[in-house]
Fold:
Amino acid sequence: MSEAHPPNRDQAELWNESAGHTWVEMQEMLDGMLAPLEAPLIEAGFPGEGGRVLDVGCGAGATALSMARRLGPAGLCLGVDISGPLVAAARARAAAEGLASAAFLQADAQTHGFEHDTFDAVISRFGVMFFDDPTAAFANIRSAARRGAKLSFMAWRSADENPFMTEAARAAAPLLPDLRVPPPDAPGPFAFADRERVQRILDASGWTDVDIRPIDAPSSVAEKDLLAYATRLGQVGQALRDADEPTRARTAEAVRPAFDAYVRDGAARFTAACWLVSARA
Structure:
């Protein structure tokens, strides 16, 4: 990667501009949607009270804060994210709670110069699928982990197994000609859908005892939040960023009914199809 195009430049621009600010604004809804996947990850990655944990792609801090509470006052969970707006939100949440065992750093985990042999565990909830060079990223992350430290992360399985996440893009496609489906291995939510690819990346970056198992968790989005979910996040949200008001209105009319089949009892309910991946440094 040349200096003219540094690693993860596109992700840095995206998450420090529109996407980062949108996720901060929608933090409560997103935390609720992903909450069912928090406990399995924390349980898998917990190194014991007083441990030191690195949370990669920590976003607005939900998993880092949860881990910090579990570690207790003698421990530390350091959340790292490329997004300045999300890191600022995470710091504010930790400060409001008075949680000294949580800290946050704006950095690119693929290239950041972590202190070596520092962490007893590494965790991530949907934060590791966005690297330009995932092998280099996981090698760099491993350098920060102590020998024997456990890596635990959640990643989405395929788009076909997560139709709720792609309903909006399918419904909006006729109205948004610039909407593009990224290649399967491109940085993005489904970059780790291929189990064998995940295995190859971790093997090549020096992790051992790799275990990749499917997790299917019930999740939901409140019915009142569905339109915002469908039109402000992901591919549709990016495509609408600079759209005119008539295009926005037509797109909203098209995408909202696409979720009707999921709605019952005031919420859109779906299954989050993920991998829970573990390995050792």
Summary: DSSP finds twelve helices and eight strands in the chain. Residues 84-97 form the longest helix (14 residues). Strands lie at 52-56, 76-81, 102-106, 119-125, 145-156, 208-222, 263-264, 267-280. Residues 82 and 247 are 31 Å apart (CA to CA).
